[in-house]
Protein: ER membrane protein complex subunit 2
Organism: Coemansia interrupta
Amino acid sequence: MSSLALLAEIRQSSERLPYEVLKLAEPLLNNNQLTSSTEDAWLVYEQVFLAALDEGQIDLAKSLLHILRTRFPASQRVKRLYGLVNEAAGHPDESQNLYAEITSADPTNVLALKRVIALLKAQGKLALAANELVAYLDTHGNDFEAWLELSHLYLAHHMYRQAAFCLEEVILQQPANHYFHLCYAEINYSMGQWDIALKEYLRVVELSTDNVRGFYGIKVTADRIIEMLASGARAGKSRREPQALSGLENVPQVPVLEKLSLLATERLVAAYSANNAAAAPAKALEDWLKQ
């Protein structure tokens, strides 16, 4: 298979394989085999440009950008590439001005909008980045990756409820991805929403049957709920009135919780007992989990 065909395959797969791209493109560039008459030549130039940036070869990227700017002097797409070079060269202000020009001419330019947000994040301006993401999601609500990024920004500010809301949007769009359920479970555990956390941890192990973090989540959440129910019952008896416990509105009965805790313990021990060499740490783990 020719180098051009292999480069086309990498583009179609959407993989970022910069080292491989540069190795394939090197003879094409050195021997002037890549010309404007070659099919997809300009896509290859852009592909190699991005690979050069990924590998820190700024001079090569600039030479390729010059070729693209000469061919497409008014292209907003090429202007965005110029912004990427400025970012890589440590000139964020120039990049920001370029992205502002692009979004002013085309407010729907998703890639430029995302670069603005990435720049703000790289500069440590997390609050501004979150504000830009909120504005972006007002018109691009089906971008689950943007919701996930906004969730991370909220978590950086310990804004758990907002982060949980973002993950709900992610899960609506990607319901079969166990990792998103795991993140949602952990946020709800941090907020004391034990019933939701337990439900989501169970969903994690349903989708990923050997997920250690999922089983550990079930174990600690079930034990925590049992402990809180017991303390609530004692408080209710002493006051002769039932005590409402937040986050426990829709939890299973204690016998079910005990079975879930035991099952999670067994699965965790099994995960660490895959071979004889792990027998000692697995025994220590079992003793600790059953305390």
The first helix runs from residue 3 to 13. The chain has 15 helices and no strands. The chain has a mean pLDDT of 87. Residues 195 and 248 are 6 Å apart (CA to CA).
